[in-house]
Design brief:
By secondary structure, the chain is mainly beta. The chain is 8% helix and 48% strand. It has one domain. The chain is globular and about 50 Å long. 4% of the residues are buried.
């Protein structure tokens, strides 16, 4: 979500994340916590668009992944109609360099 005031947030979650046995979020087993963490990503902050370069820079203020806090994350963008595609430069994911592509569709009410 990007707003007109330069703020953004990202929340990505696998739909098939298994539930914890306990209803206490602070009492998951190590395996439950690992699976929940690996199936979720969230970060927020401010953003800047550079239309000439085709990039959006996320100035991360808060993140589920602590290493991203106070770090800029650059994404390449392409827009077409109600779709926005964001792509990462090569980043380390699961122990190897990868490029992630996310396709967002605007929902109109």
């Amino acid at each position: 979500m990007y707003d007109a005031n330069g703020k953004f947030f990202v929340l990505l979650m696998r739909r098939d994340r298994p539930r914890f046995v306990s209803d206490d979020p602070w009492r998951g087993t190590p395996e439950e916590i690992k699976t929940a963490f690996e199936g979720f990503n969230a970060y927020c902050g401010t953003y800047e668009v550079n239309e000439e370069k085709g990039t959006v820079t996320h100035h991360v203020e808060g993140s589920m992944f602590p290493n991203w806090v106070s770090i800029d994350q650059e994404r390449f963008f392409k827009g077409s109609g109600d779709q926005l595609t964001l792509s990462t430069p090569p980043i380390l994911l699961g122990g190897r360099q990868s490029t992630a592509h996310l396709i967002w569709t605007r929902i109109r009410k």
